[in-house]
Amino acid sequence: MKKSNLALAVLCTMATCSWAQTSVTVYGVMDLGVVSEGGGPGGSVLKLSSGVSAGSRLGFRGSEDLGGGLSAKFVIESGIAADTGGLNQGGLTFGRQAFVGLDGGFGSITAGRQYAPHFLAVDDIDPFGTGLAGNSTNLLGTTARMSNALIYTTPSVGGFNGQLAYGFGEIAGDASANRQMGLRLGYSAGPFSGGLAHHHTNDPSGTTAAKNTLISAKYDFNFGWVSLGYNVNDGAPGNDSRDVLVGLSVPAGTGTIMASYVRKDDRSALNRDAAQIGIGYIHNVSKRTALYTSYARIDNDNGAMYTVGNAIEAGSGNRAFNFGVRHRF
């Protein structure tokens, strides 16, 4: 990442900026990988995909010292389809993140499009980091982002920290319609960290809610870290499961070996259980550039059709192999 006065000038065209107290950083990720998928109804497919391990993006983040321990900040981040030159997140210009907020001794409060606390909790215990074949998000229910959201993040006190999130539904006449709410409570002490996270989404009528609650723990041993997550997925009718994630991340030279097991226990009448195993390796060529590879397979029961995806794509079949390169700037 590097500071850019040019970017600051562009962003400040319509406003007066304090150059002495304001900093703006331009950053991004370019990630492209070859993906081989099999086991889908349409047969096998080989493709070049953007954002396999981490979504390709271009972002701007800035902060201003307001004095008295208070500062303002903003982030705008666009998801890029590096294989085609298009935009991800449904074509939204800044679909990954777009928020403004304040930091201080009280913690921080931000407003805009942001990551949901439950998703961040899943990302923390998934050795694949919600990217690559092997990531847990296709089986373990979660919502990545909240639009129209206010999020309060506490300071860390005695190892405890937390987040509260509220997403406005913005439906006239019914404040509960399309409304989202989330929270995350965490604790960290030495090699151990753990917590509780919840996400609640109402449908457009405000009468039905999809709910996910995660209990998680991670312990850093001398050889690497091991994680465990138990997710209660009380979704819309017909979407009810108990999900388990077991993860392992082991440093190996300049890289990292990752492995995970994800089990979905479907509690609906159809009993469509599924289990995924995944293994991968990331080799850091430098501080900013990495090569990666991974493989995962899902065993579906009773007509379940869960697929192996990656950071951006949901995937087309029950098994996938990928390798590629990721560069951060």
What is the share of helical residues? under 10%
- Poorly predicted runs of 5 or more residues: 1-20
Along the chain, the helix and strand elements come as: EHEEEEEEEHEEEEEEEEEEE
The first-to-last residue Cα distance is 5 Å
Tell me the overall shape: globular
Number of strands: 19
Strand content: over 45%
CATH superfamily: Porin
With strands numbered from the N-terminus, the spatial order across the biggest sheet is: 2-4-5-7-8-9-10-11-12-13-14-15-16-17-18-19
What is the overall pLDDT average?
Answer: 94
Q: Under the CATH scheme, which class?
A: Mainly Beta
Number of helices: 2
Q: Return the CATH topology.
A: Porin
Q: Would you tell me the structural class of the helices and strands?
A: mainly beta
**CATH architecture label:** Beta Barrel
User: What Rg do the Cα atoms give?
Assistant: 20 Å
Number of domains: 1
Question: Can you summarize the main beta sheet?
Answer: 16 strands, antiparallel, barrel
Description:
With 329 residues, the protein is mostly beta strands. It has a single domain, classed as Porin (Beta Barrel), CATH 2.40.160. 5% of the residues lie in helices and 57% in strands. A 16-stranded antiparallel β-barrel has the order 2-4-5-7-8-9-10-11-12-13-14-15-16-17-18-19. A hairpin with a 2-residue loop joins strand 11 and strand 12. The protein starts with a strand and ends with a strand. This is Porin. One of its GO terms (biological process) is monoatomic ion transmembrane transport. It holds the Pfam family Porin_4.
